[in-house]
């Protein structure tokens, strides 16, 4: 490196050390350049125009899209720059729903923060905002277009990191909006509810859906017994809402706070995570020995599970049948606790405290309900818990730590590290290694699965068996990995998938991260918590062992299966909508549906549909037949698929469809 | 792909031989303007009438063409759109204007049979009142230098053989078979040609930047997404000389090492799309494009792609996104397309006119090319001349021509509402469309080029020239263009999306009488911020109409703001119509037109307007045949 490899920022010489753009160099110089649309993990977008700097000889440029060059002289805070930033923020405010005090992001809104930083005391422009409807259709997220600043962070997060693209821009000019295709609701598209869009949203345009009011209601209801379970990642992040550093473990204060608010028992999801390790590890070893359905994918992450159901239905048999720790806890609690409290199952309320928005969706899945009683009744995010603590007037910093309730509050370190990407794999390895070798391992060390790369691979030798693992986080990475597995390009035994970057510690229910290193510090916090516990292997959790003895029976046995395992179903067919073409009346009718999904389309279903309609019209059968196009009859590799009445024809030709229809109508085929 | 069966020379010779057999040629202008005025019916009428008159009519030239026959063909835009449909008869050199199908029999009988001229269909000079026999006598053509447009109004754009017979594809062949890529880039750099699409970036440098990128897949793109209101130069070139555009692209492709290209034409130009598609297919069939260009073993495939109907897609990064199937939104530069363009590959993207100029440069040489135009802006430039001028149409002049020459010599002067010439009527010219600025009386003798225009707050832009007479309200004009950019903003960057909307709202306040000093202050501040801070060219230039009118017509803004008066009498909300008793003949037309019954008066007596009832709709002003009703004009 030459000595002149620096830029001069506001009179200070700052070395260039491989930063991709000037904005990063400014940040290194401890200058917080304002921006809405720059995120180091996402592509450079250059839309908010706030990160402008003045380069000598070049004038005003956006620092996010300008590479540093040796000798550049720039200023970041001139009269002109301040005025332009003010104008930009005022323009946004003029088009913004300014009901700030009642906004979920009231104290964490970047727009609000910038207006304050720039000293904006009035908006010189006319209010142009028009009220748009709020989308509350999703169980996890609320989308309020009136608060959107169109920075596109959510759009890029969803498509670039999560590989989904459930939302995108529509319309042009001042009519631009961000939303699902065709103006649909979030629940009507392929959103997996991971909430990463909300995590990067600078304002309150996409926020986790709050269940706080409902929880207060049950807490005050004397007929209800309310128990809480706390996910691993919550304990290293909640403190951030109360001025503590990321990674500081505050489980004791959380327990104290929950009790103070009226929770009858406070348990730990890490206990259920230990249970997951036993069940999932046993399932894995069984399949590994038989070479069955390899690789086994983890199933703890509800965002990933929904993603797999939508995009990888062929891989569903490979997903572990284990429920997630949240749901294992829920079904077990609903099974044993009513007897303990002497109440009916319907009066026992399970509240989960999760770092995750998809967990809200998971809790509503029909699989997780018995006799109309939900296994998990309410899911609160870390953010919501912080708000409840504040709302109850509890001074978090002054709460005296208390201990979790037994037995389901007892965990090993293996259950704690579930919150980190790689944690599930490491925990399973600690179990599997002993099971395979039959030898007790005093200090298990599988740290090779740790790390921050989006896709990590590890090969581990246990008692002569070679175990190949892959750990991915971010669903875009998962999609690529699945494609490589399908093509035979790679071959693993166990694949851990977490939807959120960094794993659960980076979940969308966590406090809004302000610094780039927040995730790393939370991750470190969980590994520290593991270190400080006496036990590190799930199989050593005595209360888990006891649960098998008293309630669950044999590991992987019948009772365990009914309480701790589940099944998945393909969601290729996202919306149950047909597009009507011919609508018959009066006489008994036959319903015809031609699949025009991608696979069937390329196999000529469109042409088939056209000819079929032609046939119906030519033969005067329009009163007898309802013909519709439909998206996906889920027989994609055997298309074109046509449903005639109740019967589905695969690899259907026009002649076949025509004859089947004629037969069902009882008309004599003439042509 | 089969190798070319004939050389360019063989094709040219065969075509010339056939064309010599034709005694006369009737060329009907097939530009969009003339077609809209019925040129296709005129064409049909000629085919029919020539046969009726007992002459041999030929529509396609080939070895079967009879000696002494009349060749009837269509051409691209001949430029004089105001006077269309245009019909040229060669070799007589006669130009008939405003020809209707019912005139055709007379033309055939008089000109084709007897060799006489039909005087009534000739262009009449509005000043000298003389009948002009052909283009050589018409001032509109006399003052132009038609090089890029040279073949446009003569050749049949759908016949590749005619293009070849006129030295077509010779430059491309030279580029592929004789010249090295670096030599081509050098020649283009030497010529000094600058991008005709608006920015004026040196084309040679753009090519060289792309050429020196590591070898591999590269693309050449022709930007035919001409979206400025009032501009139709690129459309005319694509419609009239599609092969010249292709030839330019071939030379560009050879210079940078591209083997694939896209011609991005806006979907609103169906004729240009059809002709470009046919031209590409014809060139492929002749082995000029394809897997073995001119037998060199080099490959070049061109695709014609229709735009999605967004103005912003004329911006190169947005255009590239659109080809890739993404939403047409610009992205920050760098990286420039030369480094990372279409699908991340080095890409040269040039405007239609630029590419159509390239073969000329190779044919005549850089030095000869530089003889036209100015030092920093060599060559000629086409403009679409519209607005309040006598002769609207497509023109081509060397850079350095003054506005006065364009408006008064070529355009024939400024017209009034009724079309008559008003010698003192000139008020301003909006140049460069919604991204440009306006020029005034003081700029009439400014030699136009890229730099002189930028110096006075305007730009060449794509070349739209809208002349405005003294009855034009400059605030309303700025508002019109702001409405356009506001609608066409892609909505990506804050300053453009929200800024154009707010500027429009502020201009609305001004033309509707709600403005004060604060309105003017914030309008100006906002305009500067949008200009300096927007992401792409559309946003950066969107405030130009506002800023240049504020600069040159501030008094007019102030009249609106402080006196609530529109000096041009155009802003309806500020209009208080008054009937001039001296001019009023008492015809009663205004009385009958007024939708709210605000006008009263006896027949043949001066009428009056009841200001309390008047809704300022302006219907009476428009209706009055005696110009007796005025707004608050001077």
What does the model show?
- The complex is a heterodimer of chains A (671) and B (634).
- With 671 residues, chain A is of the alpha/beta class.
- In chain A, the strands form 7 sheets. Chain A has a 5-stranded mixed β-sheet with strand order 2-1-5-3-4, with helices on one face.
- The mean pLDDT of chain A is 92.
- Helices cover 38% and strands 14% of the residues of chain B.
- In chain B, helix 7 packs parallel to helix 11 (242-256).
- The longest helix of chain B is centred in the C-terminal third of the chain and has 18 residues, at 494-511.
- The model of chain B has no long low-confidence stretch (mean pLDDT 90).
- At the A-B interface, strand 4 and helix 2 of A face helix 18, helix 19 and helix 20 of B.
Notable characteristics:
heterodimer; A: 671 residues; alpha/beta; five-stranded mixed β-sheet; 21 helices; 34% helix; B: 634 residues; 25 helices; 20 strands; globular
